[in-house]
Fold this protein.
Amino acid sequence: MSPIGWGLRLLSPAGQQARLSILIFHRVHARPDPLFPGEMDAQHFRAVLGWLREWFQVLPLDQAVERWRQGDLPARAAAITFDDGYADNHQVALPLLEAAGLSACFFIATGFLDGGRMWNDVLIEAVRGARGERLDVSGLSPVFADLAPLPLDNWPARSRAAVCLIDRAKYLPMAERQALVEAVARASGAPRGEALMMSSAQLRDMRRRGMVIGAHTVQHPILARLPEALAAEQIVQGKAAIEELLDERIGLFAYPNGKPGEDYRPEHVDIVRRAGFDAAVTTSPGAAGAGTDPFQIPRFSPWQRDRLRFGLSLARNLR
């Protein structure tokens, strides 16, 4: 066992003192994305899976959660998760997972299956495909009113523009936000482009091939910004849609955005529990251990591309 493996074993023993590390991914591009070159691509994901196989006992998330609750986790227990339901999860990530002999849990926002597009991706693709070297959005909304025309003359400039627009629109009311991002898309003149999210057929195929599927609401809203009744609809209807599509019970849930207190509140935890889920995951870093709320299980995203730094980030997360 490598030194990193030994260190992780000390930080994550078996049994009652076990710690469960859960990793978050979103997209796996077939090739590096020039707009966001730091995002996961196939070559790097293949390397990450190799490191995880070497250092951890990687379990399907449903089994990992059940064994954690029973005090029966192996040492260095980990699980892999993906949020949202991107088509490249099926096209790129799934074959790599299968080749590595590993499983992952895919949390699906059902409203975007079969041709939908998440609001942030509407902005990203508008900036990616915008015609011209500047994009003026100042007249589209008060949240953009102070923005000078955004430079688009190279990929780093387009990346900065996309991040700026996403940050400004993120916490708007859901309907207002959607109308605004569609207005930006029209102003950019960008073509619609390819489908970004999975089809129902792809999702069923992932399940047939042994992947775990979880719920992630219908439209990926920030639950804390919704009336409680509407938040409950998003949670319950997202679960029901996947159960109908796959003809099986869905027991795992991921809070959209997932920061406790900012993106969801205690009342949403209660809704998830009452909806009949077994467990739910957040985006708060850390590892599940004794005393962790099974409806607020931490997860983290290790972005380091270097093997040693990646391993050290896993160890720090366990501490």
Notes: Residues 119-188 form one domain. The chain has two domains: 3-115+196-318, 119-188. The radius of gyration is 20 Å. The CA atoms of residues 168 and 234 lie 23 Å apart.
